[in-house]
Amino acid sequence: MVDTVLASPTFVLPELSDAFDTNQFAWIDSSAMLAGATWAPLLGKSADIHGKRKVLVITLIVAGLGGVVCLLAPHISVFVLGRALQGAAVAALFLTVAIIRDICAPKFAMVVTGIVTSGSAVFGIVSPFILEIATEAFGWQFVFVVSAVFAGVAALCVRLVIPNSRNRTPGKVDVAGALTLGGGLAGVLVYISLGQEFGWLGIAPLAILIGGLAALTVWYLVLSRVPEPVINIRGISLALGLGLLVVVMGTGAYRSMLQLFSLLIDVSPDEGLGYGINGPGALGLMFGIPSIGIMLGGIVAGAIATRVGPARPLAVGVALGTIASFVMFSAGADNLPIAVICSFMLSMTAGSLVTSGFNLASVLAPPERQGTVSSMVMVMVAVGSVTMSFIGSAILAGNEIVVDGETVNSSTGVHTYIAVAGCTFILAAIPMAFLVRKLRGHADVPAEPHPGAGA
């Protein structure tokens, strides 16, 4: 279900842009992830207090309703509202990870986390081929029909099968703090989106940015100091902070590349623009085969983490992403076979980064705070994804050219886009090196619980 919210819409970005007469493809693609960043702190804290299963069912229902709104949307504003509701699916991912920590032994939980966070890519293996045929027959709406149905089925299965959590934190949810934090994050990220269209110094974008920064400042100086803050930012250890920094940059770089692939597929190399990988089966090859990489990256990262801890698999993911980005920059922007290989490597990066990020957080957090800490990982994934996608969109928009009377992306813009993603991976390697050094010689693999201690 999460894949149908975050990945599947990227398959139909050109159709969505045409349907709503907009070139803001980054906003169409990332609005759900943006909303997820604002949902996550509130839902993570709520799950620790009121129970993970209950909150998970609610998020699935909300995500399903969002799919229905997108399906019936007559205008881009209504569509974005639906995507905001679908953003609850982001919470579904980290809540699932937190539930795994409740019902599995620690080392086994690392492997299961890899299976759950990346195993959904099984759907991604066949979905591009199916969606390519289905969207031609039924239109882009088919994507959101599938998403709504999956959300309903998932909510029913969770309610019937998943046990109630026994690890809960007494207290209350700081709703004001959650809304202020979420609103601040949204304000900053919306500015990044609107700035490229209305001007970085435009009145409306600047007002939104100032409002977002003001909300974040109020939250940090006032609301984060309350007895039970929605996120205890001052309680974040150095190791966890470094891990979150790696996740925000690494996943952001990967998500931006995924967005670029959907645009490259829409252009034929025969057009002579210096980029473009359109060809027979290109959609299936670029998004189907690499789904295997997501599964391998996540599951292998989880298995390795049981022996050496999650930091080293996280480092391997960053290294793979760096290599793939610069191979893509050198020879893959107009070469389908090389692009498929690079996409496969980047997909392994994605699986490794997300799984290792969650595993690292679980190692460094007590059982009663798994929901809150997992939500922090998801916030980093969302912020990185949204920020890098909008930065990439701005790079392309700033380097457009006119060919035969039609405005298109230039080769300079595409290659600059790829280079920025590669440099972001390199930057992620800096805190990664400190993290590996910090955990060297320390027990970053969780010990098995004593008999009778409870799963």
Automatic annotation (TrEMBL):
The chain crosses the membrane at residues 55-78, 84-101, 108-131, 137-161, 173-194, 200-223, 235-254, 282-306, 313-332, 338-365, 377-397, 417-436. It is found in: Cell membrane. Keywords: Membrane, Transmembrane, Transmembrane helix. GO terms for cellular component: plasma membrane. Residues 1-440 form the Major facilitator superfamily (MFS) profile domain. GO terms for molecular function: transmembrane transporter activity. The keyword Lipid metabolism does not apply. It is a multi-pass membrane protein. The keyword Magnesium does not apply. Its main location: membrane. This is MFS transporter.
